[in-house]
Write a structure and sequence with these properties.
Blueprint (H helix, E strand, L loop, with lengths): L5 E3 L6 E3 L3 E2 L9 H13 L4 E3 L8 H12 L5 E6 L8 H15 L4 E6 L8 H13 L3 E7 L3 H12 L5 E7 L6 H4 L2 H8 L2 E5 L20 H13 L4 H12 L3 E3 L6 H8 L8 H10 L5
Parallel strand pairs: 3-4, 4-5, 5-6, 6-7, 7-8, 8-9, 9-10
Antiparallel strand pairs: 1-2
Bound molecules: NADP nicotinamide-adenine-dinucleotide phosphate.
Length: 292
């Protein structure tokens, strides 16, 4: 049986690929050449949900994506993020940052625009008003937050609601190696508010599939063994099993595994060609205790 290839983006009324791609590493320089190949492999496989941010490579990731969009005009869903550093925390800063991101991407509007993290002591209302302004101006179709707590999500969602705009997503760290969203209230808040949970580091940057370089036992050994057992049963890969556990955890979860290689982007979308049995889900769930 397959996993549904599309998932709702919260209450926005749109559906997006359940598995997309994170592009932080696209900006590391050595990866420039394979970027278009990776981008095209992703779209060929049905995963055209592209996650970037103004701070990835100081704008280089957005520029590389803009180049890809110009070279391959097939529709994609693009998300980027505003970084609220010190002295850059007002609605005006957010709307100006979006203009700069759009220029780098070569787009007139972005599909999803996030506040990247909740800068300490910053006025959350200002962020919400800035996000609302981007939707009213037509420069963003949907808005979200990233690394926000359950309480911060509720405050932003309330303020956006005054403008009749739903909070679309909270992008947070979530994987079999890091289950904080289950214990810190974020997954519960996503369910309650009907907000998508976009999971970054879903492959724990490779730690779920490869043991540490020094081969010393670590707390993920049991998870890796369980992933290998499940993968073997489906003639699949451990990475696909790890992605399928996240997708089975909740229908609001959307994944953005990072990949700089076309074969990795394609393999990740391959996770949608099968799904975990209830027993396999329980095996993986039990091998990885929720993070306290
Ligand atoms: N909102 C935030 O604050 C925040 C923070 C961190 C990250 N993010 C986003 O999340 C994305 C994902 O993070 P990440 O890239 O660091 O970590 P990740 O998705 O957990 O892991 C990426 C690593 O796994 C490898 N990989 C990917 N697919 C694979 C496959 N099928 N088989 C084997 N290896 C595979 C990649 O290799 P290759 O590169 O060689 O393909 C890369 O080394 C970032 O790109 C970024 O967009 C957001």
């Amino acid at each position: 049986m397959q996993t549904a290839p599309l998932r709702p983006l919260g209450r926005t009324g749109v559906e997006v690929p359940a598995i997309g791609i994170g592009t932080n590493r696209w900006s590391y320089g050595a990866n420039d050449a394979p970027v278009l190949e990776t981008y095209q492999a992703l779209i060929d496989a049905g995963g055209g949900f592209i996650d970037t941010a103004e701070i990835y490579g100081f704008g280089k990731s957005e520029r590389l994506i803009g180049d890809c969009i110009r070279k391959d005009a097939r529709p994609v869903f693009v998300a980027s993020k505003f970084a609220p550093f010190v002295a850059r925390t007002s609605a005006r800063h957010l709307t100006a940052a979006l203009d700069a991101s759009l220029a780098r991407l070569g787009l007139a509007s972005i599909d999803l625009y996030y506040v990247h993290f909740p800068f300490p002591f910053a006025d959350l209302g200002g962020f919400a008003d800035g996000l609302a302004e981007t939707v009213k101006s037509g420069k963003a179709k949907h808005v979200g937050v990233s690394n926000f707590s359950a309480d911060q999500m509720r405050r932003i969602a309330d303020r956006l609601q005054r403008s009749n705009i739903p909070l679309a997503a909270n992008e947070v760290h979530y994987s079999l190696a890091h289950r904080h969203p289950e214990t810190n209230g974020v997954l519960e808040a996503c369910r309650e508010l009907d907000v998508a949970l976009v999971a970054y580091f879903p492959l724990a940057s490779g730690r779920l599939t490869a043991p540490p370089a020094d081969a010393r036992p670590d707390k993920l050994d049991a998870v890796r063994r369980a992933l290998a057992e499940v993968a073997q049963a489906h003639q699949a890969t451990q990475s696909q099993a790890a992605l399928n556990w996240l997708l089975a955890r909740d229908p609001r979860v959307i994944l953005i595994p990072g990949a700089t290689k076309a074969r990795h982007a394609k393999a990740n979308l391959g996770a949608l060609e099968w799904r975990l049995t209830d027993q396999e889900f329980a095996l993986l769930d039990g091998a990885s205790a929720p993070t306290k």
